Amino acid sequence: MKKIFNARFGILWLIIISAGALRLFPHPVNSTPIGAMALFGGAYFGRRWLAFIVPLAALFVSDIVVNYVFYQKFVLLHEMVIWVYGAFILNVVVGNMIKKVKVSNVVAGGIVGAILFYVITNFGVWATPGIMHIYPMTPQGLIACYVAGIPYLWNTVAGNLFYSALMFGVFELAKRKFTVLSIAK
Predict the structure, then answer these.
(1) Which of 30, 81, 91, 102, CA to CA, is 20 to 30 A from 118?
(2) Alpha carbon separation from 73 to 59, 144, 160 (Å, rounded)
(3) Cα–chain-centroid distance for residue 30?
(4) Helix crossing, 81-96 with 48-71: angle to 10°?
């Protein structure tokens, strides 16, 4: 039985945690590393439960820190948590589908992940009562919500592609230098 906690796990964990910390730096709205974290975890963790747990933990902790630092409030779960985390989990699944890490697969995964995030979270904005409920519960309201979210979609695509290039690139370069990291999924 292979050990779970080895050099490969440590580097993967470090890359994901570092990406989560990048959310604290100024960035355009929705141009964050969260989609890339999910894609990266899904692609590289051999144990599927780790592919979900490590990126989700990084997202959860970074959400708490972001809410406390920027909004001066301690929030464990926000009104969009089901939609955001559901989309995030599907991004991990997309990462799991990357059998061979190459530029075209990572780009495709980043774009598919961004589209899934856009479709799910905009539906959540439309369907969630409370603060986020600014669109009428009609087909026209749903369409208006999706149209209003288009700029965020482009930012999500840009964030996914940039941070995926960074995260996958760093790990692939590290694998070339340190063969211990090249262990099969």
Answers:
(1) 102
(2) 17, 30, 27
(3) 11
(4) 140
Contact 160, 106 (CB under 8 A): no
User: Could you tell me the residue range of the domain that residue 150 belongs to?
Assistant: 7-182
pLDDT in tens, 77-129: 677 889 999 999 999 999 999 989 999 999 999 999 999 999 999 999 999 87
Instruction: Return the axis-axis angle of helices 34-44 and 48-71, rounded to nearest 10°.
Output: 160
Domain of residue 49, CATH code: 1.10.1760
Strand, helix or coil for residue 182: helix
Does some domain include residue 29? Answer: yes
**Number of structural domains in the chain:** 1
Say if 2 falls within a structural domain: no
Asked if the structure places residue 111 within a domain, the reply is yes
pLDDT class of 163 with cuts at 50, 70, 90: very high
Statement: the pTM of the whole predicted model exceeds 0.85: yes
pLDDT digits (tens, 9 = 90+) for 30-42: 888 999 999 999 9
CA atoms within a 13 Å half-sphere pointing along the CA-CB vector of 174 = 17
Pinpoint the alpha helices (H) of the chain: 7-21, 34-44, 48-71, 81-96, 103-127, 139-148, 150-177
pLDDT score, position 30? 85
